[in-house]
Amino acid sequence: MRQETPGGEIPVRTRVQPTRRRVAMDSTYFKRYRMEVDLTAPRSAPALPPGYRLVPWNEAVLDVHARTKFRSFRDEIDALVFPCLGSLDGCRRLMREIRNKPGFLPNATWLVAHGTAPETLQWCGTIQGIAERGGGGMIQNIGVVPGHRSLGLGQCLIERSLAGFRMHGLRRVTLEVTADNARAVRLYQRLGFRRVRTVYKVADEATVVA
Ligand SMILES: CC(C)(COP(=O)(O)OP(=O)(O)OC[C@H]1O[C@@H](n2cnc3c(N)ncnc32)[C@H](O)[C@@H]1OP(=O)(O)O)[C@@H](O)C(=O)NCCC(=O)NCCS
After folding, report:
1. Is the pLDDT assigned to residue 100 strictly greater than 60?
2. Strand 110-114 vs strand 122-131: parallel, antiparallel, or unpaired?
3. Given the DSSP bridges, would you call strands 52-56 and 110-114 parallel, antiparallel or unpaired?
4. Residue 24 contacts by C-beta under 8 Å, 6 or more apart in sequence?
């Protein structure tokens, strides 16, 4: 069975239809949307707010992505859906897994920083991208650290990542989002992502029975 990752494929055993399967009483379903955007249409490249800058991938920033991911997700619903997002160790493991995937796309993987001097530098946002076997791309996780939200950083990260997917020749990009994450769903819809599928993720390791 494939390794489970927040932005990636939901393992087959969790892709259940509630009407046809039941889950142990103490389990919780999280409804998630798979959303897709067509990259063949022209897109805009929004400017970052003053003081912020995009930082491209290189091996030296792997741990920065992990730490920024942790700070972005630790108090959010996705840390319940994917417990690895709620711990720094989990985020480090996840980042190594993403980095080691065959389709890992450096051009679709970015950080946002604020400031340049070491004493004032702040890491504010992260996104990672993977090329899938079917010819599409997938955004793995996007997170913006609280305190830097509602400034357009999420939008800038997505647009920069989509440009990276496009440079790689990909024509569509998907992601998965927890349905209750209204803020993220709104952002994706505003950027042209459309819902293509609904999946259900069981929050714990409880047995799913037919
Ligand atoms: C979802 C998330 C990435 C959005 O990041 P963000 O940087 O706040 O996104 P943006 O600033 O581009 O857009 C968010 C809102 O700010 C508004 N906004 C953007 N620039 C603005 C500005 N200059 N002034 C005022 N509002 C602004 C947008 O219109 C948008 O409004 P809406 O929520 O009503 O649609 C962020 O909330 C987050 O990290 N959440 C936790 C992790 C998570 O759930 N990630 C998604 C996993 S699928």
Report:
1. yes
2. antiparallel
3. antiparallel
4. 206, 207, 209
CA of 188 to the centre of ligand 1 (A): 10
pTM of the full structure: 0.88
pLDDT at 2 over 90: no
Q: Does domain 12-209 have CATH number 3.40.630.30?
A: yes
DSSP 75: T
For residue 171, the 8-state DSSP code is -
Coil vs helix vs strand at 159: helix
pLDDT of residue 134: 85
Cα–Cα distance, 82 to 102 (Å, whole number): 22
65 vs 41, 70, 97, 180, 200, CA distance in Å? 29, 9, 12, 25, 27
Please give the torsion angle defined by the CA atoms of residues 99, 149, 6 and 15, in that order, rounded to the nearest 10 degrees. Answer: -150
Using DSSP, state whether 22 is helix, strand or coil: strand
CA distance 163 to 44: 10
Could you tell me the CA-to-CA distances from 86 to 68, 91, 133, 206 in Å, in that order?
A: 12, 8, 29, 19
Does residue 94 contact residue 85 with C-beta atoms inside 8 Å?
yes
Ligand 1 pocket, residues with Cβ under 6 angstroms: 72-73, 76, 78, 142-144, 149-155, 177, 181, 183-184, 186-187, 190
Q: How far apart, in whole angstroms, are the C-alpha atoms of residue 94 and residue 73?
A: 13
